[in-house]
Write a structure and sequence with these properties.
Rossmann fold; six-stranded mixed sheet; 4 domains; 20% strand; single chain; 20 helices
Length: 623
């Protein structure tokens, strides 16, 4: 197999914090590798290093000569004044750079530069790239190609950056959370695109269905070391469990040996001189190995939920719209005690707006939402809590509470509670500014749960949380003694934690579905296929034209019109052909290019219109 990228003996640390040490990994032609680790283990840092965006202390990175690499960052940045389409061509790739320069030359009417770039565009075969970029952007539901990047939301910007990476046609794609801000339809399209592409892939993602469908290999960072698995996510889970069981058995065996050797070492001092030096050295090596405990830390979410009454919330005839966009239309619903609801739908259909109305952040245009007196919300929003970067992690928590009540009746200090969330004492005294994106989200989750809510409202909770934390969060939510609403595109997560779905279909239409997200997707696929099949079966066949004695003949004027149309169409085609020759000559000034391009568009429309009329008259004449 052709090697695209190879890293050997890489080490990276920030002061006393060691992320990974002496690790090695490789990506070959055709590989689609997913990187798995808990938050703070250095996944994004490793991607930055491999993409050449960040330094490392020791080791070596080797890439194939002339390897084309495209990198999707977790938080991409572009100049604010460039347009969406220009951002798609914002790259060091020679082809995309040429397209970008051509677009600027057209905009600035630089005729001299335009003449040179037209030849280069021909040489590179770049003329269809703009239409391809627009196709990809449309699939990612970005349709205003002239909008400035500075006006985009964070989710839109991430999707533009994804389009930029895909249009690059690189040999190796490095992607950090590519499915963030994608709905189910977009995620399925991206799955098909990547599995059908010849490009190799190295990515970090929390979307386990996507990871399972796309990956051909998994690389896990655990305890600063790397473990490689040849297979998808399901295979990785199986083999990881085997590895951990084998390591536990090995440790138990070594403990037994250690006890025996320790007894041997403690014998009478007079016998010490006869001891084998190699056996003494082996004892000390074993002792050092056993000091290094394999950390199987996990988030323990046994936080107490406050008592909740029978009345949760009631929505009566609620309507909401923003301009022409209808969010809810006469919506009514009574939420039950201990109900666990998932909310799904395409981006922009009003899911987050509904949550904000429930939380009292946005008022409905009409109707009412009544909240029960005993309801105590815990709200985890997409944007998250705005932390003061100059505060210590421990101070963030103690500002909320010094002690936290647990479900079993115990209470613990804020520091102990943070340790449950994988924040060891040394990390608790770090500034928030030093936390990774995933660690900040985990801290935010901690601040939500420590308030003992009885109604959790989670808006896209899976973004930026590592897979290990998500697994424990799923387990907690499945036994949570309270109410739950989750807004998420993560099908795996939703299948685990909710009882039914509220489908936001757009234009104010909301439907309840009694089942899991996967069951809904299967039902929807079957339903759509059934509709398409019915439409095909009900399609009326075109009636066969038959000759009858009463067939209509062309009038005198219609015959003259038919003859005239033949001549007109022929003349218009000659003009169109002549204009096409002039446009491809490369000798026209920018003003002439613009005028003649517009004229060709007009000609195409006129030719189509006259051709349709000619066909209509010809059918009558030949009937």
């Amino acid at each position: 197999m052709v090697s695209y990228l190879q890293a050997e003996g890489l080490s990276k640390s920030f002061g006393d914090l060691v992320l990974f040490e002496n690790i090695s990994l490789a990506v070959g032609k055709g590989d689609r590798i997913s990187l798995v680790a808990r938050n703070g283990a250095g996944k994004s840092t490793l991607l930055n290093i491999l993409a050449g965006r960040e330094d490392y202390q020791t080791g070596r990175i080797t890439t194939r000569r002339d390897l084309r690499v495209a990198y999707l960052e977790q938080n991409p940045q572009y100049p604010e004044k460039i347009t969406v389409l220009e951002a798609c061509f914002h790259s060091t790739n020679p082809l995309l750079k040429t397209i970008s320069e051509y677009e600027k030359a057209v905009e600035t009417a630089d005729t001299k530069k335009l003449d040179a770039l037209i030849g280069e565009m021909d040489r590179l075969g770049a003329w269809d790239y703009e239409s391809r970029a627009k196709q990809i952007l449309t699939k990612l539901k970005i349709t205003d190609f002239d909008q400035e990047v500075g006006q985009l939301s964070g989710g839109q910007l991430k999707r533009v950056a994804l389009a930029n990476v895909l249009i690059n046609e690189a040999d190796l794609l490095i992607m950090d959370e590519p499915t963030n801000h994608l709905d189910m339809e977009m995620t399925e399209w991206l799955t098909d695109y990547l599995t059908g592409s010849s490009a190799s892939l190295l990515m970090v993602t929390h979307d386990r269905y996507f990871l399972d469908a796309v990956s051909t290999g998994i690389i896990e960072i655990d305890n600063k070391q790397v473990y490689t698995y040849a297979g998808n996510y399901s295979y990785y889970l199986e083999k990881r469990s085997e590895r951990i069981s084998a390591a536990a058995a090995q440790r138990e065996s070594e403990l037994n040996i250690y006890r025996k050797e320790l007894e041997w070492m403690r014998r009478q001092p007079q016998a010490r001189g006869t001891k084998s030096k190699s056996r003494i050295d082996a004892f000390h090596d074993l002792e050092e190995r056993l000091k290094i405990r394999h950390s199987q830390e996990s988030v323990r979410l046994d936080v107490k939920a406050s008592r909740i009454g029978t009345k949760i919330f009631e929505a009566r005839n609620v309507s909401k719209r923003f301009g022409n966009i209808k969010i809810l239309n006469d919506f009514s619903y009574i939420f039950s005690r201990y109900e666990k609801m998932g909310i799904v739908g395409n981006n922009g259909c009003g899911k987050s707006t509904f949550i904000k109305m429930l939380m009292g952040e946005i008022a409905p245009d009409s109707g009412t939402i009544e909240i029960g007196e005993s309801v105590r919300f815990g709200y985890y929003s997409q944007t998250g809590l705005e932390f003061d970067d100059n505060m210590k992690v421990l101070d963030v928590v103690t500002r909320i509470a010094e002690h936290i009540e647990l479900d079993d009746g115990r209470s613990m200090s804020a520091s102990q509670f943070l340790q449950y969330f994988l924040f060891p004492p040394e990390l608790q005294h770090n500034l928030v500014a030093k936390l990774s994106g995933g660690e900040r989200r985990r801290l935010y989750l901690c601040t939500v749960l420590m308030r003992n809510p009885n109604f959790l409202v989670l808006d896209e909770p899976t973004n930026d949380l590592d897979i290990l934390t998500l697994g424990v969060l799923e387990e907690y939510l499945s036994t949570f003694k309270g109410c739950l609403i989750v807004v998420s595109h993560d099908r795996y997560f939703m299948d685990k934690v909710v009882d039914h779905l509220m489908i936001f279909k757009g234009d104010g239409e909301v439907k309840d579905f009694a089942g899991t997200y996967t069951e809904y997707m299967e039902w929807k696929r079957t339903y759509d296929e059934s509709l398409a099949r019915t439409a095909r079966e009900n399609k009326q066949p075109v009636p066969e034209r038959r000759r009858t004695s009463s067939v209509r003949k062309l009038s005198f004027n219609e015959k003259r019109e038919l003859e005239a149309l033949e001549n007109e169409i022929e003349a218009l085609e000659r003009e169109k052909s002549s204009l096409e020759t002039e446009l491809s000559s490369g000798t026209l000034a920018i003003e002439e290019l613009t005028i003649k391009s517009k004229r060709i568009s007009e000609l195409i429309g006129v030719i189509d219109e006259k051709s349709m009329r000619w066909l209509e008259l010809s059918e009558i004449e030949n009937s």
